[in-house]
Amino acid sequence: MSMNKDEALRCLEISKQKFQAGNSEAALKFAKKSIALCETQEAQDWLVFMSKHSTSGSSTPSSSSSTPNLRNRSNPSQSQPSSSSSSAPSEDPSRPYTPEQVQGIKRIKACKQKGDLYAILGLEKGCAEVEIKKAYRKLALQYHPDKCGAPGTDDAFK
């Protein structure tokens, strides 16, 4: 636990340095990280201080926008709602899918309802373990919800 506290204090010092340098965005990031590592009263007080002073200063947002952060490269990515992408990733209309993927998802769901797990993989019941693993990997890569945008991919992949 003391290791987290040491790291939290180090993050707090970095936050103070960033704030003095005029980078309130980075200072806020390190202050929150400090609190996440070990919640100290000093970090809480610093966060309250920063929230009071960073909202009144209008020069800090313009200075942070001139030097793009690697994690926040552009503003359009921030305007997209993150809750909709996390709640239903396969329903995202921006990911293309083929008719073959839709047909494959329907086949997997139908086999799943019957309870025939070998049919999902396209194998016979007497096949070797190596063949099962190979077929599973192939289907996992083909129909993973992060890669396949066909409707119902989440349910079929479970």
Describe this structure in words.
With 158 residues, the protein is mainly alpha-helical. Helix content is 69%, strand content 0%. It contains 10 helices and no strands. α1 packs antiparallel against α2 and α2 packs antiparallel against α3.
What class, by secondary structure content? mainly alpha
Q: Give the helix level as a range of percent.
A: 55-70%
DSSP strand (E) fraction?
under 5%
Largest sheet: none
Overall geometric form: elongated
Q: Gyration radius, to the nearest Å?
A: 25 Å
Total count of strands? 0
Mean pLDDT: 75
Number of helices: 10
SSE topology string? HHHHHHHHHH
Spatial gap, N to C terminus:
37 Å
Instruction: Enumerate the spans where pLDDT stays under 50 for 5 or more consecutive residues.
Output: 56-68, 76-92
How are the elements arranged and paired?
Blueprint: H1 2-20, H2 24-37, H3 41-56, H4 59-66, H5 75-79, H6 82-87, H7 99-114, H8 117-121, H9 129-143, H10 153-157
Give a quick precis of the structure.
The chain has 158 residues and is mainly alpha-helical. It has helices spanning 2-20, 24-37, 41-56, 59-66, 75-79, 82-87, 99-114, 117-121, 129-143, 153-157. Helix 2 (24-37) runs antiparallel to helix 3.
